[in-house]
Every structure is written in C-alpha cells, then in structure tokens.
Amino acid sequence: MAHTNTQLSQWLESKVGQTLDIRKGELTHDEEISDLDQIVLHLQKVAIRSTNHPDDYVAKEELVLEGEGTTFTEDGNVPLPQNAYEIPLLGDIHIHQENEGLKVVTDRAVYTIDIQHS
C-alpha cells in the first residue's frame, strides 16, 4: 500500500501549480457510488499526513492537497475549508490512469482527478 501512496503523491506533486478537478463518490456496501462531490483546487502543495487514531474507521494516513479551491454543491459553491482537501488512504488503494488524470479507488470512495486546462 505504501508504494501506491508514494506513486499517488508523486503524480500529484508533478501537478503543483495546476488546477485540479476532483470528483469524489462515496461507495455504498453494494459498491455503488453515491453522494457525488466536486472540488476545483489550484494545487500548491502535497503532503501525506500520518494519524495515530485508535479507531480503525479513521485512516492511518491521508493525502493532503493544499491550495485555494471551491466545493460545488447543490446549494451553491463554497470555498474549500482551510485551503486543503484531504483524501483518507484507507484499505486497499487502486490507481488507474484515465486520459491525463487519475482514478483513485479506496475502501470507501472513488476519486477522479483531472487537470483543468485554461
């Protein structure tokens, strides 16, 4: 798993200075996607943060994408809290190249990360 996390963070680090379009879909118990979120983030920094939480529900590591961004919701657009977006690295992580972007599948969600072109 650590190797995959490293690949993911290296790919994202190569995108610093660019604007990312991130779509996150929660996975249900039936492996179906629900609760789709969209975030646009001008990537400034990438970090992997380790957590030491006793609860197995909380990821031991999370990928932190720092930069100014916007969360698009049905109720309107909201600035990204604390100029950071976190991807919990929980369970088996699978990365698939899709065009110029990546599809990241964790135990709980599917993330599609694309580069926005001006």
What is the element layout, followed by pairings?
Blueprint: H1 2-13, E1 19-27, E2 33-42, E3 45-50, E4 61-66, E5 69-73, E6 76-79, E7 84-89, E8 94-98, E9 101-105, E10 109-116
Antiparallel strand pairs: 1-2, 1-10, 2-5, 3-4, 4-7, 5-6, 8-9, 9-10
Report on the structure:
The protein has 1 helix and 10 strands, in the order H-E-E-E-E-E-E-E-E-E-E. With 118 residues, the protein is mainly beta. The chain has one domain (2-116): Protein Yojf, Chain: A (Distorted Sandwich). The strands form 2 sheets. The protein has a 7-stranded antiparallel beta sheet, with no helix packed on it. The longest helix is centred in the N-terminal third of the chain and has 12 residues, at 2-13. It is globular. The N and C termini lie far apart (34 Å). InterPro entries: YmzB-like. Pfam families: YmzB (PF25846).
Number of domains: 1
Task: Please give the order of strands in the largest beta sheet.
Answer: 6-5-2-1-10-9-8
Low-confidence stretches: none
- The CATH topology assignment is Protein Yojf, Chain: A
Distance between the termini: 34 Å
Based on helices, strands and strand pairing, what is the structural class? mainly beta
Helical fraction: 10-25%
How many individual helices? Answer: 1
So what's the CATH class? Answer: Mainly Beta
Assigned CATH architecture: Distorted Sandwich
Give the topology string: H per helix, E per strand: HEEEEEEEEEE
Tell me the strand percentage band: over 45%
Largest sheet at a glance?
Answer: 7 strands, antiparallel
Q: What is the C-alpha radius of gyration, as a whole number of Å?
A: 14 Å
Write down the overall geometry: globular
Strand count: 10
Question: What is the averaged pLDDT score?
Answer: 86
